[in-house]
Amino acid sequence: MVNPLLVPELRELLNEKSYAELCEFCESIHPAQVAEFLSALNPKEIWEILSHLSPHLRGEIFSHIDEDVQLEMINSLGRDVMGKLLSDMPPDDRVDLVKRLSEEQRQAIIPAMAQAEREDLRRLIAYPEGTAGSVMTSEYATLTPELTVDEALLKLRREAPDKETIYYCYVVDENHRLKGFVSLKDLIVAPHGARVKDIMYEDVIFARANDDQEEVARIIQKYDLLAIPVLDDEQRLVGIITHDDAMDILQQEQQEDVEKLMAIGGPHEVGVYTKLSTWEHFKSRTPWILVLAIMGFVSGFIIQSYEGILLQVAILASFMPMLTGTGGNAGSQSATLVIRALAVKEITVKDALKVLVKEFGVAFLMSLVLATIAYFRVMVFYGNTPTLDHVTPQAVGLAVAVALALQVIVSTLIGALLPLVAVSVKIDPAVVASPLLATMVDIFGLLIYFNVARLILHL
Asked: Which of 45, 102, 240, 304 would staple 140 via disulfide (CB 3.0–4.6 Å)?
């Protein structure tokens, strides 16, 4: 979000070349707030301010600047300037930005970066999207087992300005294989003369570079970690993922799940609603709506096929919305709970039978309550309606109650089964469950309703 409130003051300081005051302003508040203010300036003005800051602060502020402004700066400023800015950025943020660039832009800017940062970028960007390696940072603190505590603290003092976090320090051997870790607190309270190997924890929770990023984020969440080390296939430490990155990953995954549940396609990025054009929204939202609309014709065909029943007992039509609506709600509840349980690894496809048994029990109890309410609802409103041949209000109430009970049970089981089937065939359950659920519930619900009515009312 761009905040233009300080733009006149910032431009006035720029015109007066008051760089000391600009630096003081940038150092006095959080880099994210500075970036919010600077995003209202043009690229040259932003660079004029950033160029007078320390490399670390400059990189932090540029990382928080609005994505559109970052891309505008890349297109407006020279390759040397952008190479410098990319070199100053935190490694994980640098990778995210470079991935948004065209191949031509990458070829122009990457060679202008400092060699160490350039090599680090090429290593990190090689990991597939969605893996732990694609979101990790290489700014972490390492120690060797033979260092004394005093030597370790001295090393951390020298390296801290260039590291994303030093609260966890990873102990590695000469081949950079992970041997353990110590926290900054452990180093501070350790007895004088102790060595790192004496106080380090050897049982380390870690991730592999090719692990799914969401699974790694959930490990950080589960164990309340500040960071988790990322290893390659040879047990060598290649990066870390910090808790703030884990929060971003989980937010992104939740955004993706919500949009998929609502049958929305597209990239599922956070905070892009206003940035996407009407045409892009149309493309991402129309396909599933079109498919479901076509499937909805089946419901119309079913109603048309049983038109004779409705003509004989017209009051049955008034209960159709309640039947399909209640079934949809029951199915959505079941699907949502199962999808969530699958997402957090609480259940797997192997637990399908246990899940269906549990959902059947819940659905059976709900059906008893809802069927009773439906029966008395018919009796209260239609109890004095004259009997049509053999169709009495009591028979209508029984038909509606039985149909509703069966609809709740079937809908709940469908809602539980669809995500499990989707996972078993390697499809995201959020993509399949919600879009199909409402239509399938309508189709089965109408079939159940009309057939139950025909049997009970002898139509």
From this structure: 240
Domain-wise residue ranges, the chain? 7-126, 140-249, 278-457
**HSE-up of residue 443 (Cα within 13 Å, Cβ side):** 14
293-310 pLDDT tens trace? 777 777 777 877 777 777
Q: Which residues contact 6 (CB under 8 A, 6 or more apart)?
A: 37, 40
Residue 239: per-residue pLDDT? 92
Query: Order of strands across the sheet with 207-208?
Result: 207-208, 227-231, 237-242
Do you know the residue count of the chain? 459
Segment (H or E) for 238? strand 237-242
Q: Which pLDDT belongs to residue 355?
A: 93
Dist. CA 161–CA 121, nearest whole Å: 20
138 and 120 in contact (C-beta within 8 Å)? yes
| pLDDT at residue 1 in the model | 47
Assign 156 to helix, strand or coil. Answer: helix
pLDDT at 435: 62
Task: Give the residue ranges of the chain where pLDDT is below 50.
Answer: 1-2, 268, 270
Whether the Cβ atoms of residue 332 and residue 324 lie closer than 8 Å to each other:
no
CATH class held by domain 7-126: mainly alpha
CATH of domain 140-249: 3.10.580.10
341: tokens are 């349980």
Q: Which residues contact 447 (CB under 8 A, 6 or more apart)?
A: 302
* C-alpha torsion angle, residues 266, 271, 272, 274 (rounded to 10): 130
CA 179 to each of CA 197, 226, 251: distance values in angstroms, whole numbers, following the listed order = 9, 18, 32
26-51 as b/e: b if 16+ CB within 10 A: beeeebeebbbbbbbbebeebbebbe
Specify the CATH number for 278-457; select among 3.40.30.10, 1.10.357.20, 1.10.10.10, 3.90.78.10: 1.10.357.20
* Residue 135 phi, psi (nearest 5): -120, 0
List, for residues 105-148, the tens digit of each pLDDT value: 888 888 888 888 888 888 888 898 889 998 898 889 999 999 99
Burial 274-312 (b: 16+ CB within 10 A, else e): eeeeeeeeeebbeebeeeeeebeeebeebbeebeebbee
